[in-house]
Amino acid sequence: MLKIVVMVSGGGTNLQAIMDAIAAGKITNTEIAGVISNKKDAFALERAAKAGIPAQCVSVKDFATRDEFNEALLAAVDSYQPDLVVLAGFLVILPEMLVKNYKNRMINIHPSLIPSFCGAGFYGLRVHEEVLARGNKVTGATVHFVDEGCDSGPILLQKAVEVKYGDTPEVLQRRVMEEAEWNILPQAIDLIANGKVMFEDGHAWVKE
Ligand code: GAR
């Protein structure tokens, strides 16, 4: 059984997609051990509570220094002894130790086709604003393993999504979530839980 911790900052629709996929048997061999949010009012926390999943908030506002926050965040993750950490809209710069300790055991969902529209400053709605500003006709989402860089770790899954005439950032965000994120994030967890992911030369691949 793959024990996962899901880290969130906001609405938690990706968390919901993971919970629904487990309930529907689309993700097997997996249990959510805990949910961690950096925001007290994140709706994701309510989703976790409703599903009876242990959830907690670790907010930078509750600590005197960034180091203390980092330590508390690491301790919170470790307390669940997870096999996999899933960043599902967790919009916080991660402590170095967390990344190091969970190398190849932490994935992130990013709302674009990496390496486009990623890196510092590209998160949430801002990604879709930039896609529309550039006039791209295709965008999408990426699940990747997390390394020391920003959105730079081994890519596991990607899915393309069409940009349509008249899209607003909100409309495009919703389409990317519905057509890509809510599918490839659960799929990635299921692949990992069932031993179907391998690493070679710094890249991640799905075993045939
Ligand atoms: C999602 O679109 C996710 O891809 C994005 O934040 C949103 C969270 O939504 N993550 C990033 O931008 C990370 N760089 P949710 O809370 O409803 O799952």
Question: Which features characterize this protein?
Answer:
two-stranded antiparallel ribbon; alpha/beta; binds glycinamide ribonucleotide; 208 residues; 6 helices; Rossmann fold
Protein described:
The structure is a single chain. The protein has 6 helices and 9 strands, in the order E-H-E-H-E-H-E-H-E-H-E-E-H-E-E. The chain has 208 residues and is an alpha/beta fold. It has one domain (2-206): Formyl transferase, N-terminal domain (Rossmann fold, 3-Layer(aba) Sandwich), CATH 3.40.50. Helix 1 crosses helix 6 (169-193) and helix 5 (125-134) packs across helix 6 (169-193). A 7-stranded mixed β-sheet has the order 3-2-1-4-5-6-7, covered by helices on one side. Helix content is 35%, strand content 25%. The site of glycinamide ribonucleotide (GAR) has 17 residues, from helix 1, strand 5 and helix 6.
Task: Give a short synopsis of this structure.
The chain has 208 residues and is an alpha/beta fold. The chain has six helices and nine strands, in the order βαβαβαβαβαββαββ.
Q: What secondary-structure arrangement, pairings included, does this model have?
A:
Elements: E1 2-8, H1 13-23, E2 30-37, H2 43-50, E3 55-57, H3 66-78, E4 84-87, H4 96-101, E5 106-110, H5 125-134, E6 138-145, E7 155-162, H6 169-193, E8 197-200, E9 203-206
Parallel strand pairs: 1-2, 1-4, 2-3, 4-5
Antiparallel strand pairs: 5-6, 6-7, 8-9
Helix pairs in contact: 1-6, 5-6
The structure holds glycinamide ribonucleotide (GAR).
